[in-house]
């Protein structure tokens, strides 16, 4: 791995997780405000995470790391909706915050 | 107020003083990078760095212990068992910390003998405290466990959160014992030492702060026990599932078998997943309360904890955790950048939230708010962001020029140290360190004064909607 490849790959890895965070945050904000625009922004963030994962497949990382990245890209998709659903089911009307 | 909670306030006071010492030591250490020969042969970089790291561990530990002493009587609805012994040990703990700090500052080092090991420095990073003091810390933890478990037995009840906490205290104590043996084989020594450092930080401390935050959320937002306990079980499962074998990312280059490259890389890559869940939870809670609470400082520090943990631990960690990248980044300022951000986000913000919570109750303040906490919140967070950003620039310069281009030779190391990106990053780290220090001063002012003034009912009216139950 050359110096430039090392730097490019590490920055893409950071971007990969950062975009996952953006997707999670925007998804929640979209649900909170019932805003389709923010919901679309969340999906855009997730799509950009996919682009980042795609770019990482061209990096000098070994095959298994690339496969892991693609698998984790898929795994990130249901986390915000599933977490949200779980939180909603936990916060039943009688148990809302006072 | 219970005596246990009065003891908690003492722990918080000691923690905040050590937080200040940590900042002073950090500023001195970072000045050594900027000014050649700064305090050379008087207070060397090796000493100030050691003080910086050790005070960080002790202030957080005191913050955790204080938090638990605060919540135990609330959970069990009775005074903590053995509280007198705990009070005595608190003062012994403080005296021991003061003596160790004095020895580090004034004696600094000794001959390569057992005597030095026992009375000056054990020589292992993060757990340098001499052996007598390490035994003392062990004793404090034993009494701490006795307090918690004894109270549960006496109360004849156990809650889910306290159950998790009690189980967690076993490895918290057990793993610290690894600080004692001194091994001559470097790989063997590092292998076990990482059990202590990593498994404390990314397993037992994570669970401890998870329990503390669960208890804090019940007080702060009036969250139902069922909600926080369910969430705690899920997070504990995920954090342990990814965190324990994430230990492998410390085993890449210390002489351990090569299968650790795969194990460490794989589980480290999974570590951001539960952190994303935490972010979702934080936003859900913030939305459910429309950012309204009677303790805004605590609420914002809880939010900062979720986001800081995700970015500091998740984003900054993932950037350099895969073995092919880590080959270039380990041991550079890049790692330091990640360490600063992750500790701040995962632990410091949480402890500060609990301190504000305890102050509100102890001062019987209906509401905590004002300008000071906002200034301290902004300065501390801008300071830490600036520091980690500057360290990241320096670390990238090291990894790029010294490691990847220079091949990690001594000459490349020296060239890396004078590289303009590295130097500018180091200078900016000091500048933002001063911003952080300013934030600490305002924080201390706020902690000393907040909630002491009575607030009128009219002023309170708009903000009490989301107050504690």
Structural account:
The complex is a heterodimer of chains A (98) and B (469). Chain A has 98 residues and is an all-alpha fold. Chain A is built from four helices and no strands. The termini of chain A are far apart. Chain B has 469 residues and is an all-alpha fold. Helix content of chain B is 76%, strand content 0%. The radius of gyration of chain B is 22 Å and the shape is globular. The C terminus of chain B is likely disordered. Classes of the chains: A mainly alpha (98), B mainly alpha (469).
> Tell me, what's the shape of chain B?
globular
How much is the average pLDDT of chain B?
89
Distance between the termini of chain B: 18 Å
Reported for the largest beta sheet of chain A, the result is: none
Q: Could you tell me the radius of gyration of chain A in angstroms?
A: 17 Å
Q: The biggest beta sheet of chain B, please?
A: none
Q: What is the H-and-E element order of chain B?
A: HHHHHHHHHHHHHHHHH
Kindly report the average pLDDT value of chain A.
89
Would you kindly provide a brief summary of this structure?
With 98 residues, chain A is an all-alpha fold. Chain A contains four helices and no strands.
Please name the defining characteristics of this protein:
heterodimer, A: about 100 residues, mainly alpha, 4 helices, B: about 475 residues, 17 helices, about 75% helix, disordered C terminus
Question: Helix and strand layout, with pairings?
Answer:
The complex is a heterodimer of chains A (about 100) and B (about 475).
Chain A: H1 3-32, H2 36-56, H3 63-76, H4 79-90
Helix pairs in contact in A: 1-2, 1-4, 2-3
Chain B: H1 3-34, H2 45-76, H3 83-107, H4 114-119, H5 131-155, H6 160-176, H7 186-221, H8 225-243, H9 259-270, H10 272-288, H11 296-318, H12 323-329, H13 333-362, H14 372-405, H15 410-418, H16 420-449, H17 457-460
């Amino acid at each position: 791995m050359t110096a430039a490849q090392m730097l490019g790959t590490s920055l893409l890895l950071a971007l990969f997780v950062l975009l996952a965070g953006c997707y999670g945050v925007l998804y929640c904000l979209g649900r909170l405000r019932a805003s389709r625009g923010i919901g679309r922004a969340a999906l855009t963030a997730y799509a950009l995470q996919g682009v980042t994962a795609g770019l990482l497949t061209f990096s000098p990382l070994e095959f298994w790391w690339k496969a892991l990245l693609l698998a984790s890209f898929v795994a990130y998709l249901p986390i915000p909706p599933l977490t949200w659903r779980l939180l909603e089911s936990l916060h039943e009307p009688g148990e809302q915050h006072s | 107020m219970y005596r246990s909670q009065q003891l908690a306030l003492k722990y918080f006071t000691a923690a905040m003083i050590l937080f200040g010492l940590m900042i002073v030591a950090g500023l001195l250490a970072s000045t050594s990078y900027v000014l050649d020969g700064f305090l050379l042969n008087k207070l060397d970089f090796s000493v100030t760095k050691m003080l910086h790291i050790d005070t960080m561990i002790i202030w957080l530990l005191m913050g955790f212990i204080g938090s638990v002493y605060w919540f135990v009587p609330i959970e069990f609805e009775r005074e903590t068992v053995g509280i007198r012994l705990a009070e005595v040990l608190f003062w012994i703990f403080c005296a021991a910390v003061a003596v160790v700090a004095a020895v580090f500052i004034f004696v600094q080092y000794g001959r390569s003998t057992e005597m030095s090991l026992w009375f000056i420095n054990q020589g292992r990073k993060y757990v340098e405290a001499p052996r007598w003091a390490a035994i003392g810390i062990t004793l404090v933890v034993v009494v701490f466990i006795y307090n918690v478990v004894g109270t549960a037995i006496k109360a004849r009840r156990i809650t889910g959160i306290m159950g998790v906490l009690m189980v967690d205290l076993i490895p918290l104590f057990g793993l610290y014992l690894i600080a004692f043996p001194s091994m001559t084989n470097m790989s063997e020594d590092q292998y076990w030492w990482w059990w202590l450092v990593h498994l404390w930080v990314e397993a037992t401390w994570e669970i401890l702060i998870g329990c503390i935050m669960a208890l804090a959320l019940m007080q702060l937002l009036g969250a139902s026990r069922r909600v926080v306990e369910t969430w705690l079980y899920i997070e504990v499962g995920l954090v342990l599932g990814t965190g324990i074998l994430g230990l492998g990312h410390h085993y890449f280059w210390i002489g351990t078998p090569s299968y650790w490259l795969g194990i460490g890389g794989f589980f480290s890559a999974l570590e951001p997943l539960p952190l994303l869940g935490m972010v979702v939870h934080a936003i859900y809670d913030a939305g459910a309360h429309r950012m309204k609470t009677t303790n805004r400082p605590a609420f914002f520090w809880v939010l900062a904890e979720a986001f800081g943990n995700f970015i500091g631990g998740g984003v900054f960690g993932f950037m350099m955790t895969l073995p092919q990248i880590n080959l270039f980044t380990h041991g550079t300022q890049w790692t330091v950048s990640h360490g600063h951000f992750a500790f701040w986000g995962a632990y410091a913000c949480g402890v500060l939230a609990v301190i504000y919570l305890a102050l509100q109750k102890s001062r019987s303040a209906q509401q905590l708010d004002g300008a000071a906490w906002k200034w301290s919140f902004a300065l501390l967070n801008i300071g830490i962001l600036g520091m980690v950003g500057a360290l990241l620039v320096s670390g990238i310069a090291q990894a790029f020029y010294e490691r990847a281009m220079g091949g990690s030779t001594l000459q490349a190391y020296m060239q890396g140290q004078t590289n303009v990106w590295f130097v500018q990053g180091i200078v900016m780290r000091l500048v933002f360190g001063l911003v952080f220090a300013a934030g600490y001063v305002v924080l201390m002012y706020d902690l000393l004064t907040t909630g002491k003034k009575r607030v009128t009912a009219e002023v309170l009216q708009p903000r009490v909607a989301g107050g504690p139950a």
